Amino acid sequence: MANPTSAASPTGPRLRPVPAVSRAIAILRLLGRAQGAMTLKSISEELGMVTSTCLHILRVLVDEGLVKVDAATKRYSLGVGMLALARSVIETSSFAALVQPVLDQLSAAWNVTTIGVEVAGSDHMVVLALSRSSSPFSLHVDVGSRFPALISATGRLVAAFGDLPEEELERRFKSLRWDQPPELEAWKKEVEVVRRKGYSIDRGNYIGGVVVVAVPVLDAHGRMTHALVGAGVADQLAASRAQALAKDLQAQAQALSQMLAAGR
Fold first, then answer.
1. In CATH, what number is assigned to the domain containing residue 63?
2. What's the pTM value of the predicted model, to 2 decimals?
3. CB 73 within 8 A of CB 58
């Protein structure tokens, strides 16, 4: 597994690589997205890591409760210690506390799944809260889920309200996985529309047959820190209804922005 090189952030201090930490995080992320428990060999091969190094890191993670190992099969999976960490993040997040009743209200009013996400750097969005609809439709997402920052309706928001240069946007766009991928030039035009309107609608690109509506939550400096999302089946969210939902989400996002700025 190649070690990352140190890099200077345009908005922060120069970062120096810490290989042991990077490898431990890589193991946790791999186990988090795996369909089942994994053997030492499969983990080390997947990550391109020396087996003995991988084993030493796994032993520390097991000792800390972040990873568990089945004594009989010698397979590794995430441990309950991860739950405690995730719970701490959510419980100390003012956004999660403020957004949950808003999501519940929106979900009940529109009968859609509503989600509150946080922008985790320029790479990912993380789900901090959600409220599921009462309809048979169910989006496969849970609190703590991570997904690429530029995907779906939220991705258009990140592109519109973030500060990534165009060449970086294009590079990351090419790595995204959609059910019905938009063409790059069409996507860029949609981003411009999102910047003007202040909301984004993904109609079947990310997930076939599903409409995703998203609006940004901005901080006092006008930077996007979070997003409110509503998702439902296409038959349920025709164009006019999706736009009406977007307006409702915008009103709630503006109120949340004001409360977060006031530190309430």
1. 1.10.10.10
2. 0.69
3. no
- Helical ranges in the chain per DSSP H: 19-33, 40-47, 51-63, 81-91, 94-110, 152-161, 166-173, 184-197, 239-262
- Same domain for 45 and 125, yes or no, is no
126 and 207 fall within a common domain: yes
Q: What is the pLDDT of residues 87-140, one digit of tens each?
A: 666 555 578 888 999 999 999 999 999 999 998 877 888 898 999 887 776 677
Longest dimension (CA), the chain: 58
Q: How big, in percent rounded to 5, are the helix, strand and coil portions of the chain?
A: 45, 20, 35
Residues 6+ apart with CB under 8 A from 247: 199
What does the pLDDT look like over 160-183, one tens digit per residue? 998 889 899 999 999 999 999 999
> Any idea what the CATH number is for the domain that residue 130 is in?
3.30.450.40
Task: Determine phi and psi for 153, rounding to 5 degrees.
Answer: -65, -40
